[in-house]
Specification:
It is a single chain. Helix 1 crosses helix 2. The protein has a single domain, classed as 2-Layer Sandwich (Beta-Lactamase). The chain has 175 residues and is an alpha+beta fold. It is globular and about 45 Å long. The chain is 30% helix and 26% strand. Strand 3 and strand 4 form a beta hairpin.
Amino acid sequence: MPDAPWLTPEAIALARCIAVSHLRAFGRPLATASHPPRLLAQELFASATVVLAHDGADPAGDPGPRLIYANSAALRLWHRPWNALVGMPSRLTASPSERASRARALDAARRQHAISGYSGIRVNSQGRRFWIENARVWSLWSPDASDGDKPCGQAAAFNGWHWLADGERRGPTDP
């Protein structure tokens, strides 16, 4: 029986990159980076914290960055299986009216290599909108020594979110 998609050698290496890059950005662990790689990948996938990552494609290009990782919490929230969420242009996690705000936050995170406290509206595959709050967004750093110290994508993690009622535009703490 083949491994689950989050336990392929590429996904295991990516899970380590996400965890190590988070530790570098925020000085605290997202997952236990000292675990053996396969165990770390399982821990990150099973985490209650929603974790997503996209590649380093040009945001102004078409289709822009594509999702390269989504843990179980993200798959449930966006109501998609791994093979439907991973590979999707990451801009599609937000509705068209919210994409400019999302792009500004990602640009700030790209320039600063990490931001925390981000909030915004996202939409799942069934069209249900939800408010995410206090998200962390950080640069993924290539573990390949030939790339030097070069970002190779971005990741995001958050615990706080809630469904929005039809027509609701903001979270309860947003002005």
